[in-house]
Amino acid sequence: MQIHAEYTMIGMFKHLKELVGNCQQWRFFLDQESGIRAAVFHAFAPEITNRTCEAFYVRIAKNLYKKRS
Q1: Which among 37, 58, 59, 62 is most buried, taking Cβ atoms within 10 Å?
Q2: Cβ burial 20-59 (10 Å sphere, 16+ → b, else e)
Q3: Would you say 35 and 5 are in contact if contact means Cβ atoms under 8 Å apart?
């Protein structure tokens, strides 16, 4: 059986919500990928609406790190 990556991400965030349980404030720092954003918005829609969840896009400048010879 094949499962779309988006469904897997939604399931992962819903499971995280169950694992952590009673959390007063959620804060996510996400890759700039629309699937991850959609998964967080789907799993945490009530928390986003009542402002107990925040999600931020981040970008890492991978080219700033040089390998040592």
Answers
A1: 37
A2: eeeeeebebeeeeeeebbebbeebbeebeeeeebeeeeee
A3: yes
Cα 40 from Cα 48, distance rounded (Å) = 9
Q: Residue 52 has which token pair? A: 């107990």
Closest CA to 54 of 26, 23, 35: 26
State the pTM of this model: 0.74
Residue 66 pLDDT grade (very low, low, confident, very high; cuts 50, 70, 90) = low
* Residue ranges per structural domain of the chain: 5-62
